[in-house]
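FixH family protein
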Amino acid sequence: MKNIWLLAMLFLFLTACSNNSDEFENTKENEELQSLDVQFTIPESAEAGETVTLEATVTYGEEAVTDAEVMEFEYWNVKDEENTTTVDPINNNDGTYTAEVTFHHPGTYEIYAHTTAREIHNMPKKSITIDGEATAEHNHNHATHEETDDSHHEHAENFRMSFDQVENVQTSEKTKLTISPSLNDQPLENAEVRYEIIQEGKEKHEWIDATEEAGTYSATHIFPRTGLYKIVIHVTNDEGLHEHEEHIVEVTE
């Protein structure tokens, strides 16, 4: 009888050990499955001056990460590794984070997608080759609104700038910015129109080139955060015209 009890106890002990081992393996497998994954996609090449979209898809296991603590793109020319640029992307609230950048000089650029979420850091790196001739960097060629001496700018005689004021602007949605400038009561064609976008309390300025259609200049922008934004509209042409006008836009969720 004693031997039977000993055998029974040994069987129960081995079964418990086996169950604990299975639970450990399952826990370990689940931990491995619940890793932070960042799928970083960019084109292999582009032309100098062309807008390039950077996109990172962030998941934790099967869960889309919509609230990453840190998500930013950092890039540099491989021949000038000390000079890096960091860009904050737009959170599309579906696990994807996107940003648009323009490379003005040919060469090879390396880009990190710095991501921190669920107390894990992941930083995949990609490279892109930029072909063609160097293009002008408008951020350097155009003075920002703060750098101009005439903050209360008066337009040149007979120049008018009609801006379609935007309302109900929300984050992560495309907003169309449109102006119709005129000179001597005639639509101003073949001009260069750029929107300088400045969020209140931020030092970073974003520049957006508008496209023309019969004297009307439009561009779309996605505001990444709520708050007040100053939009400075710059209008220039080959005849030496350089006018600007500012507007305030409130962005809500």
